Structure formats: C-alpha cells, structure tokens
Amino acid sequence: xxxxxxxxxxxxxxxxxxxxxxxxxxxxxxxxxxxxxxxxxxxxxxxxxxxxxxxxxxxxxxxxxxxxxxxxxxxxxxxxxxxxxxxxxxxxxxxxxxxxxxxxxxxxxxxxxxxxxxxxxxxxxxxxxxxxxxxxxxxxxxxxxxxxxxxxxxxxxxxxxxxxxxxxxxxxxxxxxxxxxxxxxxxxxxxxxxxxxxxxxxxxxxxxxxxxxxxxxxxxxxxxxxxxxxxxxxxxxxxxxxxxxxxxxxxxxxxxxxxxxxxxxxxx
Length: 268
Prior knowledge:
Layout: H1 5-23, H2 112-145, E1 150-154, E2 157-166, H3 168-177, E3 181-182, H4 188-201, E4 206-214, E5 217-219, E6 244-247, E7 253-256, E8 262-267
Antiparallel strand pairs: 1-2, 2-8, 3-8, 4-5, 4-6, 6-7
C-alpha cells in the first residue's frame, strides 16, 4: 500500500515527540512543531431563509414585445349620434342606352277634366236617387196615414186611428193592411201622442205590446222585449188570460184580455 508523503511526514513527527517525552527525567518541555495543513472540510449546509428585503427601485423598461394575435370581436356598442350629411358626390357617368322597342300605338286625346266632372256628376245623381227613394217611402207611409180620421206625430212616427173599436187580432190586421202596425210606444213622447188620440175619442186603445210569445215577458210586434214601460200601479197583474195591453185615459198601461174591443190606433 502506498501512502502519500504528507501522511508519512506527519506520522514520523508524532513518533519523535512521543519517544522524547518518555526518555526524559526532567519536566517535560513542550515543543511546538508546526504540522502540515489539514484537508479541506465538506461544504456546509444551506442556512435558513432570511427576512424579505425592501422593494428595490424599478428597473429600466424592457424592449417592446412581439404583437399578439387579434382577439375575438367585442359586443356591438350603442348607436352613436348621426353625423352631419357629407358633401354631395360627383355625378356618375350615364349608363348605356338599351335597344329601342317598337313604337306604341298613338294615344287618343283625353279630356281628363271633363271625365272627372262626369264621374262627380254620376255620384251626385246616385246620391239624389237614394234620397228620392227614401222620400217616396216616407210620402207613401204618410199618405196611408192620412186615410184615417185622426192622427198625431212623435219624432218620425205618425199615429192615426180609424175611429173603430176592434178586438186585438182584427185591429192588428187592420194596421198591417194599411202598411203599419199597432201603436207601440218606445218613449214618453210617443206614449203622449197615442194618449192624445185616445182622449179625443174618450176610448182606450190596444197597444201592439203583448206577452203572447212568452208569458210574463212583454214584447214589441217585432218580437223584441220592450225597452220602455208605463204600467199603472199594480200592473201587470196577470189575472186570467191577460196577454194584451191597453192604454188607460191617464196614459198608464194595463194588461187585458185580447178578445175585448178597443180603439184602433196604428203607427207608421
């Protein structure tokens, strides 16, 4: 085995020191012999982390980085205020003219003003014809009403009487034959017009109002429920077969049997 020279020198010096001390009778004398430098020790372990130091001053700005790719488009913002109109652009070039077609037929001379006047005149004539028809119907009804001896008016209605006393059915048929119907007041004005005729003759008339169709529900001759009524106190009392209505000389109504005779008054 081969030892390094340093180790051999160290062992020799140690041996001499021990041997000299053993043989001497006097007090031992320490002799200092400088030894050889020792070997390097192993690296020490890392120490614990120290306290965080104060933030240093900002460094110099770095160079500008490479531009990244475009991101996704954001949501559309609110519509802005319209800007002012720009200057008109330059007039564009005229387009190519297409192929000419065959000439159309020669138009006829048109007097548009005369045509418009003729249409207006026709409309007026048509309107006058309608008014004339309504007038003829009204005159016809009033002419039939004049055949009776006594009459009265209320609004657009004409009430007349033949002066006869008839049962309900005969009185109704008599009015229908003349183009009217039994007097059927729908308001106080019409009721008073009928009353004036009844008081003149001092006779109670039959009205066109009955509950023949539905017991207890009085209707006009056209079948519609009455909308105006002027019953006497306690009427209608529905005693027996009282399906018809008579007007008393005070203008009040009373339900009555249809077989008795009452003054005939028609309305047109």
